[in-house]
Design a protein that fits this description.
F-box domain-containing protein; alpha/beta; 482 residues; Leucine-rich repeat, LRR (right-handed beta-alpha superhelix); LRR_dom_sf
Length: 482
């Protein structure tokens, strides 16, 4: 009965996951409520505050505290000599780089240390925290990405430390011993995210080979020797054909995508290359059919139009989200032709991101007419692309179900949106039936000096209509963080 009560309480409190204020209130109800709530607050190390890391250090075993003391490391921890819980046992999501970053800042703010000592002390503390984790918890998610020379020992002493791991993000040049250990104990990864540096080790290929449930795979090819490209097929050949999500960030490397043709279960495909020459292998996919594909994202460079058009004809019907960077398209005519293709062959899209030139308003109208389920649209503004006024007026007049508008500024605008024009848009939006509160996202760029958010009067108008409930939320982001 007590366990049943705890399980039910866990289900209830789980709904407060994003409400930290309410979660902290739950800590004070009784010990059972406190324990269940602590399990939620402490399961993801990415959410720990500086104070939480002080508490975590206070949870270190005496042997680790002795090591810290012998190295002259003094951390002012909480007033509790013995914390109420061993908080380490609740951790299910561990990011080694995040722990390193937080401990570094903790020491930086607390002590007047030389940089050499600061780096050394950080490494010692992080290593002891890793040892504590591997002795007291069974992780679900592990992120082990480091760009420094230091290698933290997380080889588990209890064999079940990584047995339940479902998500792993790592760098290809991590310790072979760790990869061997993972291969022996970790067979049920759902997601694997790899940053490839220098080469693909055999141990990483072996880890992929023994996975029974791998559905999501992502690889980022980091700058390094060109011969690393030759080792990538060793990895891709072992990927299970049951993958539902594939992401490749290739930088300026040109790798063949032909192996994807047989991945007929793909639901999400994301491709990112820095130069159009590096995405020519998309030709190999133009005839491929992915009957379950719902998300298509192509960043940085755009494939040749004829390849992309043919791909969309084959796979557009089931697509729900499309994002295509068109900055590198040959001409405005190419962009317009692409948008017309999407309007014709992708009638079920919910989210759409691309560019429309100021000459292509008719194409935008066709898109809204053909794609009746469209809920979110991102416009590129500035330069050869639409100004905000044209984009907003067209959404208002021709869209049916839009509730989110994203304005991404590329370059300076030809005509700045006037406050009176913005207010007129909100007044008319309020009259729409059914009336849906609008999510407004502004992605700012250093190349645009007259974007909407830089006009004080425009921002006051948005604030006014947020209070009136016309605008549900306003989000402003920088281009490089989006």
């Amino acid at each position: 009965m007590p366990q049943l009560l705890a399980d039910c309480l866990d289900e209830v409190i789980e709904y407060l996951n994003d409400d930290k204020y309410s979660l902290h209130s739950c800590l004070s109800v009784n010990r059972l409520w406190c324990k269940v709530t602590v399990g939620i607050l402490w399961r993801d190390c990415n959410n720990y505050s500086t104070s939480d890391y002080r508490t975590l250090i206070n949870c270190l075993p005496d042997e680790s505290k002795k090591i810290l003391k012998e190295n002259g490391i003094i951390i002012s921890t909480s007033h509790e000599s013995h914390p109420i819980f061993n908080y380490a046992i609740f951790c299910k999501v561990l990011s080694i780089s995040k722990v390193h970053e937080k401990i570094f800042h903790l020491l930086e703010n607390q002590n007047n240390l030389l940089l050499e000592d600061l780096i050394n002390y950080t490494q010692i503390i992080v290593q002891e925290i890793c040892k504590m984790y591997m002795n007291h918890t069974s992780l679900k998610v592990l992120e082990y990405v480091q760009y420094s020379d230091v290698i933290y020992d997380i080889y588990p002493s209890p064999r079940n430390f990584l047995k339940n791991l479902t998500e792993l993000k790592c760098i290809s040049n991590i310790s072979p011993e760790l990869l061997i250990n993972l291969t022996q104990t970790c067979h049920n990864l759902f997601l694997l995210d790899v940053i490839i540096i220098c080469h693909v080790p055999k141990e990483l290929v072996d880890l992929i080979t023994i996975q029974k449930n791998l559905k999501c795979f992502s690889m980022m090819i980091h700058d390094g020797p060109k011969d690393e490209i030759n080792s990538i097929p060793l990895l891709t050949m072992e990927l299970p054909k049951t993958l539902t999500r594939f992401i490749v960030v290739g930088g300026n490397y040109n790798i063949s995508l032909s192996f994807l043709v047989n991945f007929i279960n793909l639901q999400e495909l994301e491709i990112s290359f820095d130069f159009s020459e590096c995405i020519e292998s998309f030709e190999k996919l133009q005839d491929a059919i992915f009957p379950q594909l719902q998300i298509l994202i192509i960043k940085c460079s755009c494939p040749r139009l004829e390849f992309l058009v043919k791909f969309l004809k084959n796979n557009g019907k089931n697509l729900k989200k499309i994002h295509i960077d068109v900055n590198h398209c040959d001409s405005e005519e190419s962009i317009n032709s692409l948008n017309l293709t999407i309007a014709k062959y992708c009638p079920n899209i919910r989210k759409f991101s691309t560019g429309f030139s100021d000459k292509d308003l008719e194409t935008l109208k066709i898109l809204f007419n053909n794609c009746q389920y469209l809920e979110s649209i991102k416009f590129w503004c500035g330069g050869k692309f639409l100004n905000e006024k044209e984009a907003l007026e067209t959404v208002l007049k021709y869209s049916k179900n839009i509730y989110e508008i994203i304005l991404q500024y590329q370059f300076d605008l030809k005509f700045e949106l006037l406050p009176s024009e913005l207010e007129s848009f909100f007044i008319d939006w309020k009259k729409r039936i059914p009336q849906k509160p609008l999510s407004f996202v502004i992605i700012d760029s250093e190349f645009c000096k007259n974007s909407l958010d830089k006009n004080v009067e425009n921002m006051k108008i948005i604030e006014t209509y947020t209070k009136l409930g016309v605008v549900k939320n306003l989000i402003i982001r920088k281009l490089w963080n989006y």
